[in-house]
């Protein structure tokens, strides 16, 4: 007797609520993309390199609860002014996730928050802070109430196009007629009821839980409440070196998982790791020195390099960016007595991004690395910089202004490269 094969069980995806933290350029944003693709099964558009089913925002000092949840803004229509509610980033992704549960599409959704600590996170989340507590089923432990306008924004994010009448009643189009929200939701429930009962009777894997999730969304909306659903993850980044930051209190921090992205240094250097996809091409990135010289000067110095080949081994060819980064971090670590919060001051391989030709110009080093070292890392004491340059040049170097320091960019970066080579070769 032939038997109908059982349907394939859908892989259950566990929601993630995590903060990735570390020094600048360590690849936190790249790690978020990898988590989204590998753990949350969220596809990435190959042409745009943008994650699907994802809303991304950046916190900053002017970012508020209204940007996060939604705000009412004036809009000119003919000779009159009307007000329209625009859903914030949180309501946008929440609406997408709710719609996914109602449609039972088995997709996962993601909210990405970059630079979480550059904004007042507790004030930005507001009452939504309570939603960060999650149960074992990945739903929020406690729902919260929302305003009528926030409900309008949420329904808009769910593609329902609600209308607010002159009497303030929120109505939603259903089969060509506008109905109050509760009536619309009841009709939605009845429309799906027969299909759901049929699905349960067929005993498909995970379908009963899927139906419960859909019903929970409808129940929440009918009560004008929200809760973070099981198909919505939140990933955030913190740049630990940013000193213009807001304090994250312990109550906020304990509601997240945390992952530290380490800075490359001599102690943890493993060349085989740089051959992984995350670090692909880093080994080949070179720092181009000769582009910043005039023709005659370049020729003269090339002659000097040929004469001193045993000493310098043609530095233009051998200046690799990953060695510079490791050398710079070792210089920073060796001056722990004069640098405050040294673990935050190191840099990653992506602190300066290569050009299209996979190389980095000396001008980029001047504009970004040298200023960062002068202004942020060694802001309190410039003596370590003077000592490094004096050792490199065999001269007594004194740095009074930033211009003095940036004039020695080439010598300093070569000094860092030599330091890096001692750990990588």
From TrEMBL:
This is GTPase subunit of restriction endonuclease. It comes from the Bacteria. Residues 298-313 have a biased composition (Acidic residues). It comes from Oscillatoria acuminata PCC 6304. InterPro entries: Methyl-DNA_Rec/Restrict_Enz, P-loop_NTPase. Residues 294-313 are annotated as: Disordered. The lineage of its organism: Bacteria, Bacillati, Cyanobacteriota, Cyanophyceae, Oscillatoriophycideae.
